[in-house]
Amino acid sequence: MTTAFNDAMGNRFELLVQSVTDYAIFMLDPNGIVASWNAGARRFKGYEADEIIGQHFSRFYTADEQALGIPALALQAAEHDGQFEADGWRVRKDGGQFWANVVIRPIRAPGGELLGFAKVTRDLTERRAAQEALRESEERFRLLVQSVTDYAIYMLDPVGTITSWNMGAERFKGYRAEEIVGENFSRFYSEEDRMAGLPSRALHTAQVEGRFEAEGWRIRKDGSRFWASVVIAPIHNDGGLLIGFAKITRDLTERREAQRALDEARDAIIQTQKMDAIGKLTGGVAHDFNNLLAVIVGSLDLARQRMATGGDISRYLDNAMTAADRGATLTQRMLAFARKQELKFQSVDCIALVRGMAELFRTTLGAMVSVETRFPLTIATAHADPAQLELALLNLAVNARDAMPNGGRIIIEATEINVAQGERPDLTPGGYIRLSVVDEGEGMDAATLERAREPFFTTKGVGKGTGLGLSMVHGFAQQCGGSLTIASDPGLGTAVSLWLPVADSDGDVEAAIAIAEEQQALDRPLVILAVDDDDLVLTNTAGMLEDMGHTVFRASSGADALRLLERGSVDLVVTDHAMPGMTGAQLADAIEERLPGLPVIIITGFAELPPHASRRPRLDKPFRQAELAHIVSGTMHGNIRAVMTGSPTDMPPPEL
How far is CA 318 from CA 300, 303, 328, 364, 588, in A? Predict the structure, then answer.
């Protein structure tokens, strides 16, 4: 029963082996003679069973391996080690070769006697071809990466350890592969960047976001720096596990230096343009100022001569004052051109303002030009500085006159317009007063119109204009929250329009209240400390204050003023802003710290004060005595409560 069962199982196993076609499975006797043959062996090697059984298995080996005795060595290894396994070339019946995986195991009797060998062979030719193609592809890629010298391309493991290195990396960073592989890539960063954790953040960003890219300084082996563009990308295996990073670095030092040189060249060109602009400004403004100084000097010289003989000098003094006012106006034009002129905004009745300028237009424009106004019966008030608006309109009118050398008509018109959202990119939505000055002159072509707002650009002759007119008006309009537009065609005249925001209706009420309150200010002599580093200006300011009936002490610097205040108190400090050592704004801050509540008026010829000083009373140079009296009165009214309660005027004035 048992023997029959074993025979049956043996037959079944033999049938199983014979049916396998993916493996060559056959038996060898102890000497290597083929004793059995299956379908897989016939398929791989090409022999039929009756052709190969009884032959030595060494015929499957190449001639070189036969000569070296490899078949016998394989059997010996299997017999002694229990198994022999190897990959190699094997030979078919037709002489063709295939790449095979071979396993040989000994077969022994129950008593240990060697009966033969079981040999299993698998054809791996296709897999080897695929692996070889992959290896060749990887080798080509490796050679490609290694040969790149314009980029540092290398691999990092998940913690930033360098695992590969190319020629570009060696060129940029100075390390040979054997020096740097196995080190952490953070050594390429500066000490500050390492302390800030930049290398680890770069890897984290690449892992989380799929890419990290940045520019910055990197360190070479010799300690020198270069400006680099860095890209880090994560690398995952087929299962999605992070196995490292690919890092690409490009040296941008030369490009950065070239860009810096370009920027410096551009700055030099801009500086040259500025100097050219200053030259043009000097030519126009110096001419105007010299004319005004000639009037002032000449008038004062004549006045001094006439005064010595007892003659009437009022006419000469009036001429000098008129010239000085024109000089102040020219200064305001330049500050407005810079768009930093301190404006005094209020509600302006444009119709009344233009009609009030009728005499000024007549005397300024001459008899060959007529001025026509076109206004609606009523129009809202505009938000503007009336003095600067007059100056802007006068500038536009003079430009219109100069465009009509043979005379003509100038039209000044006003319209109230509501601007919708997105209608005008240069204006915010809301109501505007459009004041237009229209001439019948030569007009402008497209090229001239394009440059019309450009600083110092003028079509007038040398010495006949500064080129600041339209720039000043443009700056004024923008300061008011409006805009300037120009429409012109050659031969058809020009229309220049000022767009000014409609004023808040509450502005007039607030202004009236402020005027009424100021009229209630204390009318009494004050003790005032005047501070200025210029003796002429200090004498002039002190003289005006003394002429008002006030007692004035003088200091030539901020430090002198503080020393005087330590010896006594005053009701008010009037100080210049631009002084060496301590500015007027700094002096005001020191006074506020030591003597809280003591009012300070800052006098300045600059367009702007420091932001923290803008809250203080300010008087612009040049000024008249009436303007000085006005700001003194207004300032003291703001401090009337402190004065009446005895602080800080309960102390005696300083002793000089």
Answer: 10, 10, 15, 18, 36
Strands 225-236 and 212-219: antiparallel
Average pLDDT for 326-336: 66
pLDDT of residue 642: 34
Residue among 492, 450, 451, 498 at smallest CA distance from 473: 498
Contact criterion met (CB below 8 Å) for 242 and 207: yes
| CA 477/CA 485 separation, integer angstroms | 10
Determine how many CB atoms are found less than 10 A away from the CB of residue 291: 14
For the record, the structure tokens of 585 come out as 């704004």
Pair 240, 268: CB distance under 8 Å: no
Structure tokens at 151: 């980029």
Distance CA 565, CA 185 (A): 65
Q: Which two tokens stand for residue 536?
A: 């002429």
* CA 597 distance to own-chain centroid: 43
CB atoms within 10 A of CB 46: 15
pTM of the model: 0.40
What's the 3-state SS for 200-224?
Answer: HHHHHHHHHHCCEEEEEEEECCCCC
Q: How many CA atoms lie within 13 A of 90 on its CB side?
A: 25
Give bridge partners of residue 250 from the DSSP assignment: 229
> DSSP 3-state helix, strand, coil percentages of the chain (rounded to 5)?
45, 25, 30
Which residue spans within 305-385 are E strands per DSSP?
A: 346-348, 369-374, 382-384
Distance CA 230, CA 130 (A): 35
CA angle, corner 349, sides to 346 and 355, nearest 5? 130
- At residue 25, the 3 state secondary structure works out as strand
If residue 431 lies in a helix (H) or strand (E), which one and from where to where? strand 430-439
- Element counts in the chain: helices (H) and strands (E): 23, 20
DSSP letter, residue 49:
H
For the chain, percent of residues with pLDDT exceeding 70: 80
Has residue 544 got a pLDDT over 70?
A: yes
Instruction: Identify residue 95 by its one-letter amino acid code.
Output: G
Q: CA nearest 107: which of 49, 13, 27?
A: 27
